[in-house]
Amino acid sequence: MRPVRKRIPVVVQGRRTRRPLVARALWTGAELAVTLGAVLLLLVVHQLWWTNRQARDEAGAQVARLERQWATRPTAPPRSPVPAPDPSPGDDGAGRAAPPTGTRTGTPAPPPNDLAYAILRIPRIGLTAPIAQGVGKAAVLNKGYVGHYPGTAQPGGAGNAALAGHRNTHGEPFRRLDRLRPGDRVTIDTADARYTYTVRRTLPQTTPGDGTVLAAVPRSSVHPAYGFAEPGSYLTLTTCTPQFTSTYRLVVWAVLRSTQFR
Questions:
Q1: Which of 37, 46, 120, 129 to pair with 172, CA 20 to 30 A apart?
Q2: How many whole angstroms separate alpha carbon 221 and alpha carbon 10?
Q3: DSSP classification of residue 190
Q4: What sign results for the dihedral spanned by CA atoms 255, 258, 261, 262?
């Protein structure tokens, strides 16, 4: 019997088509897009939620620490509140305001840089935040604090006490600053006194270089119709505008109405 020969099948591989390559490229691109989207989403969550939570917790804890420190200080003999004269009669539309008399004589020494030493309260927008010396981002503003511009007057003093705060992220203490209206009350508590200011006017938008809004007699050099013309005790609040940008600055001015010594 003759043996049966078995043939080994020959497999001929055809050309690879371009479709699988295109499909793999599209799939890889889709994976990269999803990954990038997830990373961007995490960044947004970090900026808009996590930084706010961290900063608000830190700012709230700092307010509590200051209040405890002041409560444990030796009490001084009580002093009657000293009202400052209403600047309205001295305002002729150009922002003239007579200097208040309810302040202590002399110029208080500025506190050390980055140290929280006062508490800002604005009932209209539900704000309670610590004030620290300086306007550095890492050391002050990103903690949810309000920063005091070096070189400007201290709260309650003659001249212009100027403050800055974030409008978005990192606690965003000045998020609703644009809601303030003339007549709104602003108070600043320190270890020695409570200073009560009244909002007088708002500059909705100016350039970051409009530095005269921080002058002892504040006035906008970009929008000359906004500001004051005579010495007094002023409070200037500044933040970025529009929201989520740093293109321009929003400015709110207030004048000292009364001082309550502790």
A1: 37
A2: 89
A3: -
A4: negative
- Model's pTM, two decimal places? 0.75
Non-local CB neighbours of 63 within 8 Å, separated by 6+ positions: 119, 128, 129, 130
From the list 151, 137, 154, the residue with the least C-alpha distance to 51 is 137
Active-site residue identified among 148, 166, 194, 257: 166
pLDDT in tens, 55-92: 999 999 999 999 999 999 776 555 555 555 555 433 43
- The 10 Å Cβ neighbour count of residue 151 is 9
Say whether 124 is catalytic.
no
CATH number listed for the domain at residues 51-74+84-261: 2.40.260.10
The active-site residue, picked from 175, 194, 240, 257, is 240
The b-or-e profile of 184-214 (16+ CB within 10 A means b, else e) is: bebbbbbebbbbbbbbbbbbebbeeebeebb
249 given a catalytic annotation: yes
Q: How many CA atoms lie within 13 Å of 167's alpha carbon, on the beta-carbon side?
A: 19
Contact 238, 135 (CB under 8 A): no
Distance CA 81, CA 246 (A): 40
Residue 240 a catalytic site member: yes
Residues 111-123 have a mean pLDDT of 96
Assigned token pair, 65:
């620490």
